[in-house]
Amino acid sequence: MIDLSNSKILVVDDEPTNIFVLDGLLSANNFNVITASNGKKALELIKTEKPDLVLLDIMMPEMSGIEVLQRIINDPETNELPVLMVSAKTDSEVIETAMNIGAIDYIPKPFVDIELLARVRSGLRLKKNIDHLKELIESKSNFIRTVSHDLRTPFASISGFADILLNDPDLRKKMTSEHKEFLQYIIETSHYLIGYFNKLLNWSKLEASRIELKLSQVKLTKLLDTTQMIYQKDFELKKLSFVREIKGDIVLNADETYLNQVINNLVSNAIKYTPENGTIKIKGYCLEKNNVIEISDTGSGITGISPDDLFNKPYHTSTSGINDEKGTGLGLFICKKIIDAHGFEISFTSEPGKGTTFIIKC
């Protein structure tokens, strides 16, 4: 249960009697009360005292409660502060205005003690939950930043050492073509991961609300080469056929690392939900003015979730794969964010027991 004792409440009212009554009631219930008799003083106290909730009278001289509320909501530093409007005025338009601006509730005068305390506690619980959520988000961002930063250096070293080995004249004479291919794969994969960690560092600062893209002309075949290298062992373990049907030389104006992440997420899901001896196919072609990428599988299909929920809910439940593979439930949400940032479109078709096809229009 959330502990609300000693929560700081700012009471704003131009009537001394009302302040006296509210101060007495709230203090008797273990709340820490500060008061202001006008809007200007209230805004100063919000900055200096940082209350957990504001009880704000609507009808005040000089600066009305509506004006004070508007300033609270317009200020990025205070716009999450819960505000309860208190007034004897019963004009529904004024009440509606306050609620539309951002007040969380309205309490009429004369108020009932039990009702007022219940709404105050409800508002304080909202504030506590918001603060807790912000702490979790900051903790997650710090974790992503730390992990991404710490892993970049060893992968850079791996890439550097592999490059030295690959380009050593004496060693090259002793290496088979397969050895050279393995070293080249280590270098390319390390570069990809370093780029990926750099993107995570950037994304953690943006909280996934705005993705900064580094656009370039990217060949679809290059993206698929990377994907095939990464998942080749998975294809072999499940005896999956990986088919590529690319019509023409398709070049995309995209962020290579981010778009690679989309394709990899979709292929990873296809592997997860496709039984042994199945097929994963990637098609690339031009349709009117768009380049189209289709990633299809012969897996179990998608059931019980709408397209909006599948792409837009960040934490929907992730079902286990054919071999009980686990997922985070985050992959398609991330894909949608990346696709939207590019101005592309993503959709899917699915038939239970026969498979799923994801369609990206670029």
Notes on the structure:
The protein has 362 residues and is of the alpha/beta class. It has 2 domains: 8-111, 3-Layer(aba) Sandwich (Rossmann fold); 208-361, Histidine kinase-like ATPase, C-terminal domain (Heat Shock Protein 90, 2-Layer Sandwich), CATH 3.30.565. It contains 11 helices and 12 strands. The protein has helices spanning 16-28, 39-49, 65-74, 92-101, 113-166, 169-174, 177-206, 220-237, 256-273, 307-312, 331-342, and strands spanning 8-12, 32-36, 53-57, 83-87, 105-108, 216-219, 241-246, 251-254, 279-287, 290-297, 345-351, 355-361. The strands form 3 sheets. It has a 5-stranded parallel beta sheet, with helices on both faces. Helix 3 links the parallel strand 3 and strand 4. Helix 3 packs parallel to helix 4 (92-101), helix 5 (113-166) packs antiparallel against helix 7 and helix 9 packs antiparallel against helix 11 (331-342). The longest helix has 54 residues, at 113-166. The chain is elongated and about 95 Å long.
Summarize the structure.
The protein is α/β, with parallel strands linked by helices.
Strand content: 15-25%
Binned, the helix content reads 40-55%
Cα end-to-end separation: 49 Å
Query: What gyration radius follows from the Cα positions, in whole Å?
Result: 29 Å
Output the strand order for the largest sheet. Answer: 2-1-3-4-5
Structural class: alpha/beta
Q: Stretches where pLDDT falls below 50 for ≥5 residues?
A: none
Number of strands: 12
CATH architectural label of the largest domain: 2-Layer Sandwich
